[in-house]
Amino acid sequence: MFQKIKRVYKRSGLLGILLTGMSYEFKQTSKFFSNSAERILTKIPISPNDKEILNRNQVFKNKHIGQRCFVIGNGPSLNKQDISLLSNEITITVSAFYKNPIVEKWQPTYYCFADPLFFDGSTPVRIFFQNLQQKIKMSKFLVPIYTKSVIENQKLLPVEQAYYTLFRGTLSNSLNYNIDLTESIPGVQSVSQLAIMWALYMGCSPIYLIGLDHDWLSHRGMDAHFYRGTAIDNYSKAEGDLSKIYYKDDLKAVLELWKGYETILRIAANKNISIINATEGGFLDVFERREYKSIFLSSN
Fold first, then answer.
1. φ, ψ for residue 165, nearest 5 deg
2. Strands (E), the chain
3. Which pLDDT tens digit goes with each residue over 50-83?
4. If you average pLDDT over every residue of the chain, what do you get?
5. CA 244, 245, 246, 251: dihedral to nearest 10 degrees?
6. What is the rounded CA–CA span in Å between residue 278 and residue 236?
7. Which domain holds residue 4?
8. Looking at the structure, do residues 134 and 283 belong to the same domain, yes or no?
9. How confident is residue 27, by pLDDT bands cut at 50, 70 and 90?
10. Same structural domain for residues 176 and 294?
11. Cα–Cα dist 52/54, whole Å
């Protein structure tokens, strides 16, 4: 500590020491209030109506305990991997995965949405879900609870196949290391985080991740996926142009995303569940890495 003070003094004098101390106190105070807000949010009672909706999720508790599953993102690396191998596996897909031609051969077991953009009631969104329902017949869906009315009013998803989750707080700042879908869960930065938490709740192990490239900071053009264009066709709000995002804001967002994944890793460790990233390339280094093909060689 003394050496640090000495370095600050040489660089900035007594004022530097004072400001450094104030900065430290500010960070500690901010952390205190942030943690306090997190505790308050998670203690707010859930309304009886919401609780009844969430209780339907009990059917998923430890449903696949000890069975492996694959959480599949929509990164361009998915085109480099043979996902026909997943025809008999438990799979959790996200967002616009229905655009993958593989759905003609096998259907995702589960399907997640988290982005509010998919539930704004617009015409392009309705067309998106019409196209999805033409392709996806067997999956069960997990979506935020606030989307329930628009889903049912516009028939975006089959009512009996739609399940809901309640977000409170943030995953990156979460103090709750027990994922229970019949209660509130931490809010996510990415739909892939919701998919992994669903897998954890179902007791899946190991949980393999593919298609999670997470390489937005390395390029500033269009956000790339395994499909061409944007997730929602002909919709200006879903343009996906990363160059329009201030790079500093992008850095902050990715940092929060990484913190959320670190929380997920701690949750998995508490449950003795392995999460393994089998994405071809990509930047997600929070989880243990493994080559995708080797998973099936060891199975055989």
1. -130, 150
2. 69-72, 90-94, 110-112, 140-144, 162-170, 184-187, 207-210, 275-277, 288-289
3. 999 999 999 999 999 999 999 999 999 999 999 9
4. 88
5. -150
6. 33
7. 1-43
8. yes
9. very low
10. yes
11. 6
Residues 144 and 232 in one domain: yes
Nearest 5°: CA angle at 64, between 290 and 75? 40
Answer yes or no: is 48 within a domain.
no
The reply to whether 13 and 157 lie within a common domain is: no
Number of domains, the chain: 2
175: pLDDT confidence band, cut at 50, 70 and 90?
A: confident
Q: Does 17 score more than 80 pLDDT?
A: no
Task: Please check whether residue 132 is in contact with residue 100, taking contact to mean a CB–CB distance below 8 angstroms.
Answer: no
What are the tokens at 176?
A: 């709750």
Any domain includes 129: yes
Sorted by sequence, the CB contacts under 8 Å of residue 44 that are 6+ apart come out as: 168
What's the rounded Cα separation, in Å, for the pair 218 and 300? Answer: 37
Q: Is 62 left (phi over 0), alpha (psi -120 to 50) or beta?
A: left
What's the pLDDT at 16? 52
